[in-house]
Design a protein that fits this description.
single chain; 2 domains; 75% helix; globular; mainly alpha; 290 residues; MetI-like fold
């Protein structure tokens, strides 16, 4: 085969070489390296380490911080899934109705999606620490006089609120587009037959929204499992590790305790969970392909 024929046949690969090399260097190699270090006691400060086998994974089973992080991550994930689906559908239905200024309201509800998660968390941190206590003192509401971020339950609720406030923006758009894809003839026929709003929702709107619900479910699931930056800026994992997510726990062990080997073990567990979720996402998406 001449050089000209070779180039004519394989020239397309030239556009893939650079991104493939970059992905191998900055993703696959660090991933394999991290998996290897999860079986060591590497501190991340020197090149010296000892191979400890599965000892890091044994310690995970008795690590109170890890179990607490698992619990908070599950609570956060479930709250995001339920909140984004329920609130998203309710608000989308309201925005789909014939109301004045609906274009303004649609832009208003989508606005949080374009903001930085860190910016949102830092703003709400000031609100929870200074704004709400000041309002509580002025109105004589004792339950507001203390910052929510200072108590374990309050910090969990505040974290869920902030992530949900920003996370529900995209589901609203997805559900709104799903509602607008419903043929108007079907809705009009249902109204002529005497169907009320509740019957129209369960029999007509909900079936059309199932693909969007599946997508929002996976988005919320991944957002909860990988939560880091907003929690880091809002609570830092406190108080008493009550809002430490798995991602934040990896950060703490790696960069605060210099236990890089142990942190890699937690990261690998999180990677496996996300991998399983991704496989489920693909299977669920195929079910709704037309």
């Amino acid at each position: 085969m001449t050089i000209r024929k070779f180039l004519n046949k394989y020239w397309g690969w030239a556009f893939l070489i650079v991104p493939l090399i970059l992905q191998a260097v900055f993703f696959y190699f660090p991933m394999i390296q991290g998996a290897f270090y999860s079986f060591t006691n590497w501190t991340g400060l020197t090149y010296n380490f000892d191979f400890v086998g599965i000892n890091n994974y044994k310690i995970l089973m008795t690590d109170g911080k890890f179990m607490k992080a698992i619990g908070f991550t599950l609570i956060l994930t479930l709250a995001l899934i339920v909140g984004e689906i329920v609130l998203g559908i309710i608000i989308a239905r309201a925005l789909n109705a014939k109301i004045k200024g609906k274009t303004f309201f649609r832009a208003w509800f989508f606005f949080p999606a374009v903001l930085s998660g860190l910016t949102v968390s830092l703003i709400f941190k000031q609100v929870f620490n200074y704004g709400l206590p000041a309002i509580g003192s002025a109105l004589g509401l004792k339950f507001l006089e203390t910052s929510m971020l200072g108590t374990a339950n309050g910090a969990v609720i505040a974290s869920i609120f902030v992530l949900l406030w920003q996370g529900v923006a995209m589901p609203i758009i997805l559900f709104l587009s799903g509602l607008q894809s419903i043929p108007s003839e079907i809705v009009e026929a249902a109204a002529i037959d005497g169907a009320d709003s509740r019957q129209t929702f369960w029999s007509i709107e909900l079936p059309y929204l199932l693909p969007s619900i599946s997508m929002v479910f996976i988005m919320a699931l991944k957002a909860g499992l990988t939560a880091f930056d907003q929690i880091f800026a809002l609570t830092g994992g406190g108080p008493n590790n009550s809002t430490t997510s798995l991602g934040l726990l990896v950060y703490n062990y790696a960069f605060k305790s210099n236990q890089y080997g142990y942190a890699n073990a937690i990261a690998l567990i999180l990677f496996i969970i996300i991998g399983i979720v991704s496989v489920l996402q693909i299977k669920l998406s195929k079910k709704f392909e037309v």
